[in-house]
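Re: weekly structure request thread

Next one in the queue (172 aa):
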Amino acid sequence: MSPFLWHGGLMLLAWFVLLPGGALVARFFKVLPGQDFPAVRDSRAWWRAHLLLQYAGSAVAAAALWMAWDALDGVWDWSEPHAVCGAAVMALCALQVASGLLRGTKGGPTDTHADPADPGTCSRAGTSARAMPPSCLPYPRPGSAGSLSVPRFGPGCCCWPWWQALWQCSSC
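Done, posted below.
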């Protein structure tokens, strides 16, 4: 099988399954069904799933990049928009991974580095959700501007610009 088919297949897996899956987990699964919120304010399941999917997606994308690099004997054709856009996206992907590694812990109300004397660290155990700072809540505080009812669109709408760009680039 052609290394370019492997490159394309692995990039599709990374950018259309693993990485969006990690983002969706972080967005929609901070409070899980059956979780006794607000008594249980932190579920590590979403964090672990988010990390696993994001790092796996980045690794798969890096493997796909290496396959293309190897197949081209390390020589890029910089006149091709695919090569320029791909290099830019992979550089941003590397920055994202570095940012995640430098960040350290997830933070939040149950972080081991939280300071009980500092309200900014969200470490006030036993405090009701209404008394917590907004940054500590996994959802907007009821009645706040962030809790306005806005229409939510499915993940397909988020991917539409990518599909459109792919369609346009396929004719390049």
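Residues 3-140+154-169 form one domain. The radius of gyration is 20 Å.
Next request, please.
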